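Regression test case RT-17, inverse folding.

Input:
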């Protein structure tokens, strides 16, 4: 039975989110009593005040997480019991679908239809998938000689600090929480100060599902205050970080300055989308890159922002991409028909507009978009923008923009295409479009990226690892490989006497 769609504007007006942090299973104010204002990029409205976490609050959260771990409130439960609780957590996420989707849209500006159809179900699926994996990951017996039994077991690390960005707040949190909790760890989550609301609600749902107090804690706050304190904490065993490469470097520095905690960085990207002249459906390639680039307002680390097109088809390709841009008009994110929403805040708006101006001033041709729009709403909206005639040295070709700005570069040979694609500090994703199976394999192997798509882009599944090469980070989110980040391998040697003793 289909239920009528909610009146999202009415629901938004009635929303009163709880901005207090969650530590040891309890909501609480910051120790200082300080808060920060949470404002919506949709129209500038106030969403309320959020607790401004600082080092003293991080200390309390880590202490609670450590007590929970040492007392084995969670790690000591049989795998099947942890599985059931995590499954209930996933069910509660789905049951709170409308509330979570509204919080996500109001907090960071994405269209409500995608918060409903992508972010909430992906978050629940991630938690449910790792719940199912809890009792299906086996330990090992090493092939030693007859006089020994060597057991290789995975053990939870202890206390995990998770620091996540503002572009996919729930999904990025789930990518850390799923494997970390499934393995038996305790977690302290620091969401972005730009989008803290769904993280706080997720923690509340986890407690309602039966997660013991102290196992999942959320401390909102600013990076230099709460984030730095978490990364420097001497009793945090690992940091799972998703964000900018600049901040990722700091995470490594903080580990060196503290307890040499493990740091797993999922960082930026400048993904290459390579279209060869032997691909027969240029229009499909153009439609795919537009849909992938302008999804989530271009605020995706894996957005295909560098489009490399063979010179012989480039004019036709650019014309078709430019014709796609009007299909993604920035509009009211609370309207279910909207496909492009608002940038997260005024800082990101200024950043994106600065890159657009840089593209023009350096000589690229703006083939579509390039303007701020909907200024009367009080929100932060930018048209989908396409630049043609981009040179590799231009700023828009080298730096991650994190907005709806696409750069088209032209090439003449396969070798030139590979060289251009790899001429980046990043290596998160890439895509190859060719009807020549040999070329597709050859180029895919040559590209230095964590994921290479062939004749498609951004197809995704929780069973497939996500992460990058080079300055796009280390380690992998998603799939069983994510357990490697949140577990320690222990070898237990047992001597076996060759002869029975009397």
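Golden output:
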């Amino acid at each position: 039975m289909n239920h009528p769609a909610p009146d999202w504007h009415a629901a938004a007006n009635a929303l009163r989110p709880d901005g207090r942090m969650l530590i040891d299973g309890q909501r609480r104010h910051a120790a200082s009593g300080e808060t920060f204002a949470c404002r919506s990029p949709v129209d500038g409205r106030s969403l309320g005040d959020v607790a401004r976490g600082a080092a003293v609050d991080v200390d309390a959260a880590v202490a609670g997480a450590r007590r929970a771990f040492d007392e084995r409130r969670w790690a000591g439960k049989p795998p099947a019991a942890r599985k059931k609780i995590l499954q209930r957590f996933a069910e509660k996420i789905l049951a709170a679908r409308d509330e979570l989707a509204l919080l996500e849209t109001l907090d960071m500006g994405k269209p409500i239809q995608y918060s409903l159809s992508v972010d909430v179900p992906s978050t629940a699926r991630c938690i449910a998938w790792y719940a199912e994996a809890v009792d299906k990951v086996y330990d090992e017996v090493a092939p030693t000689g007859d006089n020994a039994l060597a057991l290789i077991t995975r053990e939870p690390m202890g206390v995990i600090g998770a620091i996540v960005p503002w572009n996919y707040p729930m999904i990025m949190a789930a990518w850390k929480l799923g494997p970390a909790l499934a393995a038996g760890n305790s977690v302290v989550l620091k969401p972005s100060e730009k989008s803290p609301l769904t993280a706080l609600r997720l923690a509340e749902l986890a407690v309602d599902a039966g997660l013991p107090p102290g196992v999942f804690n959320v401390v909102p706050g600013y990076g230099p205050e709460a984030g730095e304190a978490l990364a420097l904490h001497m009793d945090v065993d690992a940091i799972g970080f998703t964000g900018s490469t600049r901040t990722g470097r700091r995470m490594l520095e903080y580990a060196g300055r503290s307890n040499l905690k493990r740091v797993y960085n999922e960082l930026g990207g400048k993904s290459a989308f390579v279209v060869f002249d032997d691909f027969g459906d240029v229009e499909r390639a153009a439609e795919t890159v537009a849909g992938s680039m302008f999804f989530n307002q271009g605020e995706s680390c894996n957005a295909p922002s560098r489009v490399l097109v063979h010179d012989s088809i480039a004019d036709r390709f650019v014309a078709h991409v430019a014709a796609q841009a009007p299909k993604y008009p920035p509009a009211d994110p609370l309207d279910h028909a909207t496909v492009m929403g608002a940038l997260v805040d005024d800082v990101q708006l200024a950043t994106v507009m600065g890159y657009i101006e840089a593209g023009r001033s350096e000589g690229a041709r703006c083939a579509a978009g390039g303007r701020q729009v909907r200024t009367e709403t009080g929100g932060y909206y930018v048209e989908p923008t396409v630049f043609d005639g981009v040179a590799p040295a231009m700023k828009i070709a080298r730096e991650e923009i994190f907005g709806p700005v696409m750069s088209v570069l032209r090439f003449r040979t396969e070798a030139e295409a590979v060289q251009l694609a790899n001429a980046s500090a990043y290596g998160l994703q890439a895509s190859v479009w060719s009807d020549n199976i040999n070329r597709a394999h050859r180029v895919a192997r040559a590209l230095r990226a964590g994921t290479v798509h062939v004749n498609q882009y951004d197809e995704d599944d929780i069973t497939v690892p996500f992460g990058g090469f080079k300055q796009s980070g280390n380690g992998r989110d998603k799939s069983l490989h994510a357990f490697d980040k949140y577990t320690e391998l222990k070898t237990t040697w047992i001597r076996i006497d060759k002869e029975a003793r009397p």
